[in-house]
């Protein structure tokens, strides 16, 4: 047993990502090594899905900069590489959020993903748990440079349970991998090529496979939505809880997440990990059948285990969970122990509040006494508003002379 442990330890390779070193098995992809570190060090991914063989390499959101190829060959890789398709080497040094090249490239990738994507978040059922929404919030621009007509498609029912909104699709191919690998047969795929490519079924056939609902869970945007849940509730109004039942389907694990509001179950999904991918239970991906997903919506159908584990900071879990089950935050490690600031520290130059008071450290909301100078200015404004600018100007000049 001791020899096996030594063998495993000797087989691992060291890789440094954003200044944090970890040990992983040979052949591990950079993105999986980064996920072992956790937090913001892990690159985002829109097409890569660990449990789906052949996924990744399409969206380019996981690009990273390799500043040292390995200990044996320390030369950097000149171009950015897709972390989901690049394996680690001993002594490899990688930059993700600490690289300006990576952040600039990711901004460009997001701009391309949003070229045809409609800005219909207020009416989209995926809003609040959309990977593209989170990505565009971090890397998107306020406006668009795209001046051409966007692609639009007619909404399509591809079965009794699934609505296809092709206009939102980013062609990540995840749903195709699901149909290929966990269903008995696939009857949908990518039609046409290039900028005309789109996903549809073969001659408008309905998808009726018993595990087809898992395509909804793997979709990173709102292209595939649950017809039994559409427009019934907002995801942030519901609370995810872990549930299980003895499913009649031998291929179904029977363990799922029920999204409840009060005593009512609005939808059922797979159990996700912190990366938004299906959990591995008993060594296998915990996919669920359509019976558990679409037909078991009564509390009596399930055994409720408790609140679901939070996968990320989002509107789904705001003010609902304790800090103990939130995902690991690594920004302090990347920044050398410095805490990330939500706002710029401008109190020393703004002359609004006492520079000796750190508002972020107050264990209460700020009150009037915390803004003495501002109150002094307001109190000296005369009743005639026409002279207010003059009085403020004089007060600021006198304050500058004293300093």
C-alpha geometry: globular
Give helix % range.
10-25%
Question: CATH architecture of the largest domain, please?
Answer: 2-Layer Sandwich
Strand content: 15-25%
| Uncertain runs | 342-348, 377-386
**Through-space gap between termini:** 72 Å
CATH topology name of the largest domain, in short, is: Alpha-Beta Plaits
Number of helices: 11
Helix/strand class:
alpha+beta
- Rounded Rg: 26 Å
Average pLDDT, rounded to a whole number, is 82
CATH class of the largest domain: Alpha Beta
Number of strands: 16
Order of helices and strands: HEEHEEEHHEEHEEHEEEEEEHEHHHH
Largest sheet: 5 strands, mixed
Quaternary? single chain
Strand order of the largest sheet: 2-1-5-3-4
Q: Indicate how many domains the architecture comprises.
A: 4
Structure characteristics:
globular; four-stranded antiparallel beta sheet; single chain; 4 domains; Alpha-Beta Plaits; alpha+beta; 16% strand; 23% helix
Describe this structure in words.
This protein is of the alpha+beta class and 403 residues long. The chain folds into four domains: 110 residues, Ubiquitin-like (UB roll) (Roll); 111 residues, 2-Layer Sandwich (Alpha-Beta Plaits), CATH 3.30.70; 106 residues, no CATH class; 56 residues, no CATH class. The chain contains eleven helices and 16 strands. The chain has a five-stranded mixed sheet, with helices on both faces. The chain has a four-stranded antiparallel sheet with strand order 13-12-11-16. A hairpin with a 6-residue loop joins strand 8 and strand 9. Helix 3 packs across helix 4. The longest helix has 15 residues. It is globular. About 4% of the residues have low confidence.
């Amino acid at each position: 047993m001791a020899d096996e442990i030594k063998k495993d330890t000797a087989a691992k390779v060291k890789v440094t990502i954003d200044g944090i070193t970890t040990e992983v098995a040979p052949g591990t992809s950079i993105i999986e090594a980064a996920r072992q570190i956790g937090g913001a060090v892990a690159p985002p991914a829109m097409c890569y899905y660990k449990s789906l063989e052949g996924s990744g390499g399409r969206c380019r959101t996981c690009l990273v900069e390799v500043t040292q190829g390995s200990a044996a060959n320390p030369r950097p890789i000149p171009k950015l590489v897709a972390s989901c398709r690049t394996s680690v080497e001993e002594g490899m040094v990688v930059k993700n959020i600490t690289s300006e090249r990576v952040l600039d490239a990711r901004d460009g990738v997001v701009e391309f993903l949003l070229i045809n994507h409609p800005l219909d978040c207020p009416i989209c059922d995926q809003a609040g748990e959309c990977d593209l929404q989170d990505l565009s919030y971090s890397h998107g621009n306020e406006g668009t440079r795209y001046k051409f007509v966007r692609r639009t498609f007619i909404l399509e029912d591809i079965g009794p349970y699934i609505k296809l909104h092709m206009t939102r699709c980013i062609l990540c191919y995840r749903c195709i991998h699901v149909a290929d690998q966990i269903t008995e047969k696939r009857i949908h795929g990518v039609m046409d090529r290039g900028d005309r490519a789109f996903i549809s079924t073969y001659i408008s056939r309905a998808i009726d496979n018993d595990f087809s609902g898992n395509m909804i869970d793997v979709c990173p945007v709102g292209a595939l939505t649950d017809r039994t849940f559409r427009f019934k509730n907002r995801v942030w109004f519901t609370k995810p809880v872990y549930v299980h039942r003895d499913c009649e389907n031998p291929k179904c694990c029977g363990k799922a997440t029920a999204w409840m509001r009060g005593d009512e179950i609005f939808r059922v999904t797979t159990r996700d990990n912190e990366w938004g991918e299906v959990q591995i239970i008993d060594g296998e991906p915990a996919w669920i059948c359509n019976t558990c997903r679409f037909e078991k919506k009564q509390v009596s159908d399930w055994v409720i285990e408790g609140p679901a584990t939070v996968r990320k900071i989002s509107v789904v879990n705001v003010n609902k969970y304790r800090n103990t089950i939130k995902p690991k935050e690594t920004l302090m490690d990347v920044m050398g122990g410095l805490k990330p600031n939500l706002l710029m520290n401008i109190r020393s130059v703004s002359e609004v509040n006492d520079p000796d008071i750190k508002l972020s450290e107050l264990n209460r909301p700020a009150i009037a006494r915390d803004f003495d100078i501002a109150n002094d200015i307001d109190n000296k404004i005369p009743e005639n508003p026409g002279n207010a600018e003059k009085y403020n100007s004089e007060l600021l000049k006198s304050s500058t002379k004293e300093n």
